[in-house]
Structures are given as C-alpha cells and as structure tokens.
Amino acid sequence: MTSLAHGRRLSAATEARLRVITPIAVGVIALAAWQLLVTVGGVSDYLLPSPASIAAEVVEFWPAISSAAVVTGFNALVGLVVGGALGVLLAALAAQWRPIDGMSTPIVAALAVVPIVALAPVLNSMFGADSQFGRQAIAGLAAFVPVFVNTLRGLRQTRAVHRDLLRAYAAGPGQIFRTVTLPTAVPYVLTGLRIASSLAVISALVAEYFGGPRGGLGTFISTSAATSAYARAWAYVAAGIVVGLVFFLATALLERIVRRRIPSEGAR
Fold it and tell me: What is the pTM of this model?
C-alpha cells in the first residue's frame, strides 16, 4: 500500500511537471521555427518580423510597452469586475424569478453578438477623447455574457430532491442557498470568469485600437503599424498576449483556491 501511494504521488508530480513543461517546450519550438523561417526562408520583415527583431523592440521600448500594458490591463480589470458582478447578479435574479429570466434572455443574446469594432468608435465618441470609460464598458460587456450564461446554468443545476430534503428539515432559503445552491453553482461561475478574463483583455485592446485616449496597447499597435514599424507593433501584440495570460492564470488560481474552500456537489 505504501509503495502504491508513493507511486501515485510520483505520477501526480510527473503529471504536474509535464503540465508546465509541455506548453513551454511547444512555445520554444514555435519561436525557433519562426526565427528559422524568417532568417533561412528569406521572409521579409514587412510580412513577418523575426522573434529576435521583436525582442529587440521590446527591450528598446520597454517603458512605453509596460505603461501601455498597465493601461490595457486596468481597463480590462475594471470591465471584468463590473461585468462579472452584473452577470452574477442578473443570473441570480433570473434564476429566482421567471419574468426576469424571460426578459433577460433576449437582451443577453443581443449583447453577445454586438460587434466590438462597430461599438468602440461610437462609445469613444460619446464619452470623449480623454475618457477610458468607453473601453472599460466594452470590456465589461464582453465579460458580462459568459459570466451570466454560466452562472445561470450553475444555479439551475441544484436537484429538487436536495432542496426538498432541506425544507423537510426546516431549512430556510438562505440555508438552502449556502449549503446546496452555491456549492453547485461555484464551478460554473468560475468557468465563466475564466472565459471572461481573456475576452475582457481582447475587447479592451480592440477598443483601444479604434480610437479614444492615447495610452493603451491597441493604440500603439495601430500607430506602429501605420508608421510601418511592424516589429514594434508585434512587440505591443506580445505585451497584449502577456496581459491576457496573466488574467487567465489569475482566474485559474482563484478557481483553484475557491474550489478548495467550497467543494462542489460532486465532491461531497
């Protein structure tokens, strides 16, 4: 039994290491192939700058890149927090009252197909050239939809037999929510947040690309591409990828922490 448990621990440790090493190895191989394609294959920097050229631009323009990443990250964070909170709140109301569910469903469906490229210039014009609110609103809109859909689904996963059992023991609505409904819905809420985190970053970056105050990654990508500084534009794109990964990893870590504290129904 001891050797079996030891073997399982080693297997779990190996799996955890592979989970980290594999994507890093794939990324290194992809970058090496990219560099080889540009240098040996003779691909012009106009079409595809090499990773070495992009890295040189990152080093040279690091202060501007880091400052722009902070602006984009803040806009995405505000949108994620506000949009996620509104999504959870509206989903809770829709799960409780069917009239709200009937009214919210078509609205959410319409919001899900709103084109960012068309909405961004409109909001930037509405709130002025110096306001970040339009960009934050677009990020919040992108975050709202997946959080609402996943939360509503999670709140509806509670089995009626569990609620009836608690009512038979004279449990109130609050107790039923804390002991059954919330633990069942938590994995769905966290999944919605994880999806929304990437969408918030992408939406904030796209909104910056189409005007508004100067300062975000999208603005500098547009400016660099317009002046034919393509390696610099790719450097800002790489910064956007890093911001998106930070948001994704942060929400994944939050999911792990919350799941340890509030076990799901299947774990009980």
Answer: 0.81
